Amino acid sequence: xxxxxxxxxxxxxxxxxxxxxxxxxxxxxxxxxxxxxxxxxxxxxxxxxxxxxxxxxxxxxxxxxxxxxxxxxxxxxxxxxxxxxxxxxxxxxxxxxxxxxxxxxxxxxxxxxxxxxxxxxxxxxxxxxxxxxxxxxxxxxxxxxxxxxxxxxxxxxxxxxxxxxxxxxxxxxxxxxxxxxxxxxxxxxxxxxxxxxxxxxxxxxxxxxxxxxxxxxxxxxxxxxxxxxxxxxxxxxxxxxxxxxxxxxxxxxxxxxxxxxxxxxxxxxxxxxxxxxxxxxxxxxxxxxxxxxxxxxxxxxxxxxxxxxxxxxxxxxxxxxxxxxxxxxxxxxxxxxxxxxxxxxxxxxxxxxxxxxxxxxxxxxxxxxxxxxxxxxxxxxxxxxxxxxxxxxxxxxxxxxxxxxxxxxxxxxxxxxxxxxxxxxxxxxxxxxxxxxxxxxxxxxxxxxxxxxxxxxxxxxxxxxxxxxxxxxxxxxxxxxxxxxxxxxxxxxxxxxxxxxxxxxxxxxxxxxxxxxxxxxxxxxxxxxxxxxxxxxxxxxxxxxxxxxxxxxxxxxxxxxxxxxxxxxxxxxxxxxxxxxxxxxxxxxxxxxxxxxxxxxxxxxxxxxxxxxxxxxxxxxxxxxxxxxxxxxxxxxxxxxxxxxxxxxxxxxxxxxxxxxxxxxxxxxxxxxxxxxxxxxxxxxxxxxxxxxxxxxxxxxxxxxxxxxxxxxxxxxx
Length: 718
Prior knowledge:
Radius of gyration: 39 Å
CATH topology of the largest domain: Heat Shock Protein 90
Structural class: alpha+beta
Number of domains: 5
CATH architecture of the largest domain: 2-Layer Sandwich
CATH superfamily of the largest domain: Histidine kinase-like ATPase, C-terminal domain
Oligomer: single chain
Largest sheet: 7 strands, mixed
Shape: elongated
Strand content: 15-25%
């Protein structure tokens, strides 16, 4: 009985032990199965993270290249019209977007000229040799920026351009756009704060740069070499990992390196042929791999934690993906807008090509006819008149383009001076009457003002009115009527407002086009361009100038019934005493006997100015550049010259340096002789530069003979 009891006890113990072992085995197997499942799930999540990060970097690279390619294309067109490296750099600076990116030009000898004004010699010339591809993206060093810091460079070959520089003539072969590589990489450390190392390597396994995270094993190493020296986990072989990486596959693997375990993840960047990878400590992903027996009791809690982390990670990735999609949509909209702007500019360039060639063709044709009929004064005079008209039309086209550029860049300033609104209106009427030669139009002017004295920018106010009046003349057929009126609208002790109305009964405009009339390059019908020539910028310039003067402009029009433009502007009243007008001053001006040193490098311009000034009684001596001018003034007796007319853009020594040199000479008249700039550089910054160099006045080319006479007379001391 006792034996049987003992046997029962043994059986009971054995069964109990077997059950415990079975339960333990089942739980252990279940645990390992769950571990494997969780490990596979984590692999998939990490693969998704790696793929998403690589896709973002790849899209950023592609978008950056497309933007760089567009900017490079724009610069390539502009560079065709430059003749020195400084002009090239200024053109490049016009596209600089004020981020930590850099544009630079590279010549045939490997020298680069950066948009920040610096230059130097490239360390790696192999990317800029004549037989390299036309388009290339690579990682390299730009010496003057930071010899220890790399940049992604987008390089494009251009048609060789030979320009002047301080080192003589150089041939520009490439335009490059450099960007810090870190700006392309998605910050994976947001998922694993402080415990992740993100980097990019090339197809040989060599690490190119690091972004965030751990100071660990990868710095300065070849990734593929590290695979070969690591301990494989779950059967992954180093050879297979290297082959998979080179084949552009996504990799997620657990490796043991230097006794520690890490997860290594990578995905390809197709646009540039690189691979984005990151490595994270396994302990950051606790619960993946083996779960010790002592933690089996916490299995469900651990699974819940892992699932929670996975869900949060997936939610984060989904939200990030949604944000990336929104950014992609915005980028596509931006690309569409850029495409629309590009098409508008292309159409504008096509139209401008036609409009510029037309007067040039007329000038060349009339010149040829005049040369063939030199013995027929009447015919020559007629040709010269037509050449003058074509030249003025060509100048107006150029002025429109330059005016719009300056207004959009914010460089146009309103300069109010004492003025008379009646005189401004009379001047506008005189100009328009000059355009009516050969036309049959009834043009009337009315000026109903009681307080005409104002503080106004005469130049820009006159430009607004002439633009509108010129359009009225252009779009009103013979037999039509044009009314130009100025009416005082309101007046206080300090302010006065006027309505300027231009009304015609010409061809008018459609209601749809009136919505776009003040947009740049706007022209209603291309089929009308042969009869009504222009840039499509006149009304855009008009609107911008009216806004700058604090006014308003309105338009009413109907097809075949005419148009009415109303400009309303309020001015400060001029309560000072009236002064002599410019016309009165020019009438009394005289330069008889004035001894002038004319400094001009262009032989044709020198001949024109010399002839016109000599006909007015001046005595002219000529110098061909700044050095010649300095030598002639230095070697002359004091008082030999009354005035110096100085061009600015000249070889050997420009006009600004020549003026500074003359002012510094040790002779009594060096500091007092009037030096007047007479140059094609007509912008505000150009005028400021001549003043700072020591010049007394600024005359712009093409020269206005009355303005030249008036200015010289003001500075001429008989």
